[in-house]
Structure formats: C-alpha cells, structure tokens
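Handout, section 3.2

Students often ask what a structure token actually looks like in practice. Rather than define it abstractly, here is a full record for Protein BEARSKIN1. The first block is the sequence as you would receive it.
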Amino acid sequence: VPPGFRFHPTDEELLHYYLKKKISYHKFEMEVIREVDLNKLEPWDLQERCKIGSTPQNEWYFFSHKDRKYPTGSRTNRATHAGFWKATGRDKCIRNSF
C-alpha cells in the first residue's frame, strides 16, 4: 500500500465499483477489500485480517458470503466458535448518483 493511501469509498462506490467487479470475477488493482468467512472469525480477529498497510484504521471493508441457518430457509447463520454475530442497524436504500 503506498504511503498516505486512505480508503474511504462512498456507499455508491462500494456497490457500483467494488461489488460489481467482485460478482463479475474481475481482478482489483489493489486488494483493499478482503474476503473473510464471518462464521469462522471472532470480532477481535477481524482487525488483523482486514487491515491495510500499517496505519491503524477505524473502519474495515470485507466481502463475506451469507450463510443460511437452514438450507431451504431465509434465516442467516451468525454463529461463531465463541458466540454469534449480532445484526444491528437498519437496511438502507443506496441510489446511483452517477
């Protein structure tokens, strides 16, 4: 990562550039968003796995697959070895301003 590099994408950039490239199997010039399995990671391990460079960060970005609790159900499995992930916040509509 080059010195002084800061990664602060907007919601639109995350969806229309990074996620679109990811689902289209295009390569990224720099690996700034890591792929992690949240069901195998505890929250205290996430920072080490997702950090970029050596500068401390307050926000981390990652790709993760949604794991279903039951094969035919709609509930999400949020269990980890030591506990579970708690879903917080509300869904937010993101509109394309391009």
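Discussion prompt for tutorial groups: The radius of gyration is 15 Å. How would you have guessed this from the sequence alone?
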